[in-house]
Amino acid sequence: MNVLIVEDDPVASLILKDFLTECAYDVTLCPTAEEAMKVFRQAAFPLLFIALDLPGTDGLSFCRWVRNQPAGDQPVILVGTASDRPADLQKIIEAGGDDYLVKPYQKGMLGVRLVIARQLLKTRDDHRSLQDKLEREQERLRHLATHDPVTNLLNRTAFQQVLENVVEAARPGSPSALLYLDLDYFKLINDSLGRTVGDTVLAEIVEILWDCVRGEDMLGRFGGDEFAILLRDVSLPEAESVAERIRSELEKLLFSNAGRMFVICSSIGIAIIDGTAPAEVVIACADSACYGAKARGRNRIEVYDANDGTMADLREQAPRAAEIMEAIQTDGFEILFQPIVDVQTAIPVQYEVLMRLPSKGRLLLPGAFVPAAERYNLMPEIDRQVITKALRCLVSNNKLRLAINLSGQSFSDAALLDFTEASFKAAAVEPNRVTFEITETSAISNLTAARTVMNRLHGAGFLFSLDDFGAGFSSFAYLKNLIADYLKIDGSFVRDAETGQSDWTFVEVINDVAHRLRIKSIAEFVEKEATLAKLRAIGVDFAQGHYFGMPGPAPS
């Protein structure tokens, strides 16, 4: 370690030099502060011994000078003084000294002060190391806040900020373009070979994307298989040319693993940026065009067309999706309750939980927001929030039994199963107080996943109801493959029979099938007393509808 001694007294200087040399330090001697300043600028000295009384610039002034230099807070400074009066020692500390030595120097005291100095140096080194680690971690977190960790591309939030600046600067006649790219069937690679292999493929894809664009263009990753590409100052034909080059190059990327061959294809949507629409609308338009490309066969390019009905509908879903995401983040969904009654007594036996999305002072019904939630794969998050809110009601009312709707997208969310079981266990709520309702169509469209979810949750004690049963009469063929405690007869059969548009045959058949399979039946959309009487005569077990109560707050 380098040590700088600033001492004009030859005897004191020799004592310090001999002692420190014996301790294996590299010693530099300077008789004046002015000479020491020159030496200090040329080399690093972790430890300084400074005499208080020096010719010219005194020791206190030199201390202050050292502390004002770059990294001047790092050295440990010991000041030699003939006085040990508190007032004099206070001046040393205020000038930047760390410790003092009383003259004449004695080796025993030098040894003690040196031990203290070493410990102080170690403490500062440790602090500096921790500070460096903290700064690196803060920088890493700042990077993660704006970048996708797998591809190192901008994430959606950061990309949109860049896009907003481009939109503000754009003018008609000098446009830019946004490409929204979706990798067709990429999920097959992740599901078949695992995410590690999938991430390797993503790295190759990103390399291709960078090769297809210019240095001034920008890439972002919006989701698992969705990318955004900002092309600055390009016309529509130029944007289409870049998009086709990307599509073509990705199509050439053949990936094989263990003898299995995978082809990477892409659907690309294009929206022009001319300053007439805000960034979120531009993204919605490009996304809609991308979805249009997928709907028209995939592995193709579509330009957003406001006159295309499908694209326009998809674009309108984007603002609704933003409302949904805000409600997810702020716990903003509201839940209402509608009674399900025993047909014979008309007494409620459980309540169905109905979700509503607050929007501009109104509560939107599911039909107004579920399509957007499904389009952006937000239903599992909504299901979690509904389950959490319903669980609070079950905790506060130990006699309450609830029916909670579970979306088809949640069948593929393995984490939701763990979340549900853990939440009910933590709340000490018996699972048999909850019936999960799944629609017939969602169960049949993803039969394997539906069976997995139903088997596991049913095994944990939860009950299941097949909702809207009979809407597609392939239902009976699949019924034997699904564990159901209740069968909800599709409300259209009850409504049509109630209004005289058809007879009660379908209701009777479904009720009979349910009972033969030892499943309880529930009739929906009951509006009249005469309907209740007919359901009693048929032998339906339970009923639900406005006749028994409108959706409302949690029952007391």
Structure write-up:
- The protein is an alpha/beta fold and 556 residues long.
- The chain has 3 domains: 2-129, Rossmann fold, CATH 3.40.50; 156-305, Alpha-Beta Plaits (2-Layer Sandwich), CATH 3.30.70; 324-544, Alpha-Beta Barrel (TIM Barrel), CATH 3.20.20.
- It has 20 helices and 21 strands.
- The strands form 4 sheets. It has an 8-stranded mixed β-barrel, surrounded by 5 helices. Strands 2-1-3-4-5 form a 5-stranded parallel sheet, with helices on both faces. Strands 7-8-6-11-12 form a 5-stranded mixed sheet, sandwiched between helices.
Task: Briefly say what this structure is.
This protein is an alpha/beta fold and 556 residues long.
State the CATH topology of the largest domain. TIM Barrel
Radius of gyration (CA) equals 37 Å
Subunit arrangement of the protein: single chain
Unreliable segments of 5+ consecutive residues: none
Number of discrete helical segments: 20
Helix content: 40-55%
What is the global morphology?
elongated
In CATH terms, the superfamily of the largest domain is: EAL domain
Largest sheet: 8 strands, mixed, barrel
CATH class of the largest domain: Alpha Beta
